[in-house]
Amino acid sequence: MPTARDRFKMIASSYLLCIRDDMILLSRRHNTGYEDGNYSLPAGHVEDDELLTAAAAGSVGTNHTRTGKQGAGTM
């Protein structure tokens, strides 16, 4: 018989909110297959036994590149 752990699975994500000089760091989705071309906060899935802070920092370090552009995606 399945246990509660087998029946319920949740995928946790971490989001990073970076604000500097009235600017917010955004990520533009590209080649993900989901919401490509849209902007979002830098985010990533949290792996088993991974700290939320480590997942958030890792999502910025590995999945994003600096463009140096300001005002891109302003709504």
Descriptive account of the structure:
This protein has one domain (4-63). The N and C termini lie far apart (51 Å). It is elongated and about 55 Å long. A hairpin with a 2-residue loop joins strand 2 and strand 3. 21% of the residues lie in helices and 19% in strands. The protein has helices spanning 4-7, 52-63; strands at residues 13-15, 19-20, 23-24, 27-28, 39-40, 43-45. The chain has a two-stranded antiparallel sheet. A two-stranded antiparallel sheet has the order 2-3. The chain has a two-stranded antiparallel ribbon with strand order 4-5. With 75 residues, it is an alpha+beta fold.
Layout of secondary structure:
Blueprint: H1 4-7, E1 13-15, E2 19-20, E3 23-24, E4 27-28, E5 39-40, E6 43-45, H2 52-63
Antiparallel strand pairs: 1-6, 2-3, 4-5
Overall pLDDT confidence: 76
Let me know the number of strands.
6
Shape summary: elongated
Contiguous low-pLDDT stretches (5 residues minimum) are 70-75
End-to-end separation = 51 Å
The main pleated sheet reads as:
2 strands, antiparallel
Helix and strand run: HEEEEEEH
Into which percent range does the helicity of residues fall?
Answer: 10-25%
Q: Please count the helical segments.
A: 2
Strand content: 15-25%
Number of domains: 1
* CA radius of gyration: 16 Å
Query: Order of strands across the widest beta sheet?
Result: 1-6
Helix and strand content put the structural class at alpha+beta
